[in-house]
Design brief:
7 helices, mainly alpha
Length: 181
């Protein structure tokens, strides 16, 4: 085989490789544009089909907006180990938001047993986000709001209120073989 023929075959193979790479990049650019357009128009469920962590974040946010807080938190918890630091911060911040949204739907006077743990979990999420990014002002603001709802009680003295039952609940274990009353 002549040198010209081998050179022509080599050039053809290089051109095919370049065309394939260009096709993949164009496809990737179109997917990114579709993702950005969906997020811009707040169609997060459409953005959720994008592969990788950003697609999972969009899916979690879509679940959060739909009021499916537990589903959103499950997805956000996977993103807390993402390589992208800003995505980890956003996942922690939004996890705190899901807890705070749920706590806001609970009446603090009549159902404090449900609201207090949610607010405490929200504060923990905001603090974790601030540990990664101390300049995250939204997390700082929401932490302040959560602290206004339920101040930290590290150094507070426990006060006994006459007539009020303790919020501490006890679960007693029993023998599985014995009959229950």
């Amino acid at each position: 085989m002549g040198l010209k023929k081998r050179l022509a075959i080599l050039c053809t193979l290089v051109a095919l490789g370049a065309a394939t790479g260009l096709g993949l990049e164009v496809s990737r650019a179109r997917a990114i544009d579709a993702y950005n357009l969906a997020v811009t128009h707040e169609r997060h469920a459409e953005a959720a089909v994008y592969p990788g962590d950003v697609g999972r974040f969009a899916a979690a946010y879509a679940a959060q907006i739909a009021g499916q807080h537990q589903d959103a938190r499950l997805i956000y918890s996977g993103l807390e180990r993402s390589e992208d630091r800003s995505l980890r911060v956003a996942a922690l911040y939004n996890t705190g938001n899901t807890y705070l949204e749920q706590a806001a739907a609970v009446d603090m006077k009549t159902d404090a047993d449900r609201a207090v743990p949610l607010i405490e979990l929200a504060k923990r999420s905001y603090r974790d986000a601030l540990a990664l990014d101390p300049a995250h002002w939204d997390a700082r603001y929401n932490l302040e709001r959560a602290l206004q709802l339920l101040p930290d009680a590290y150094d507070k003295k426990v006060i006994e209120v006459e007539g009020r039952q303790s919020p501490v609940r006890t679960v007693l274990g029993g023998d599985a073989e014995s009959p229950w009353p």
